[in-house]
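Q: what sequence does this backbone want?
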């Protein structure tokens, strides 16, 4: 079980997160994470254009530069800036700097099961089960996103089509033994 104070590290994109408030500690109201993304964080979790249909996201920048791509434009945020992405708004983000890490607090509300999606992605990275660009295989994503419906969709494809694609991919993935959730064990827990 993820608890406040749990730390995850993704060696692929040099991203470390510390859970400040979890689904359990906030009674499902929100998930809050302190995040550090290494320099040149092109492949961080928000690198793909996506949206959360039922959840609002907030990024509070403490140091470094956050590039946020929303509504076809790019905005750069620095220390002291807060960015709020309303539910349903397509976006992507990354560390703008190729020399400095990005430190920010991330909040998503309501929490739903978002921490389990994050845990799965970080666990796959720890196991080396991600592609060169840092993402899980299509079948693994299909199994996970089919299981955690209404958490995340890719921008640019109609949601009903994505649901069908995820469902079909999930059927195949499950037959191949893929699981929707993977527990993070940390660097020494593998």
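A:
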């Amino acid at each position: 079980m993820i608890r406040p104070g749990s730390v995850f590290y993704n060696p692929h994109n040099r991203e470390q997160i510390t859970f400040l408030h979890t689904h359990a500690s906030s009674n499902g109201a929100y998930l809050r994470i302190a995040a550090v993304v290494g320099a040149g964080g092109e492949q961080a979790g928000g690198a793909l254009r996506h949206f959360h249909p039922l959840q609002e996201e907030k990024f509070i920048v403490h140091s470094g530069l956050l590039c946020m791509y929303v509504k076809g434009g790019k905005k750069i945020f620095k220390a002291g800036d807060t960015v709020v992405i309303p539910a349903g708004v397509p976006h992507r983000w990354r560390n703008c700097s190729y020399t400095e890490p990005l430190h920010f607090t991330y909040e998503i509300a309501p929490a739903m099961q978002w921490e389990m999606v994050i845990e799965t992605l970080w666990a796959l990275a720890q196991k080396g089960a991600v592609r060169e660009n840092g993402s899980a295989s299509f079948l693994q994503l299909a199994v996970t996103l089919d299981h955690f419906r209404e958490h995340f969709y890719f921008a640019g494809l109609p949601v009903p089509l994505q649901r069908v694609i995820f469902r079909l991919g999930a059927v195949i993935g499950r037959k191949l033994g893929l699981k929707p959730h993977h527990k993070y064990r940390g660097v020494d827990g593998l």
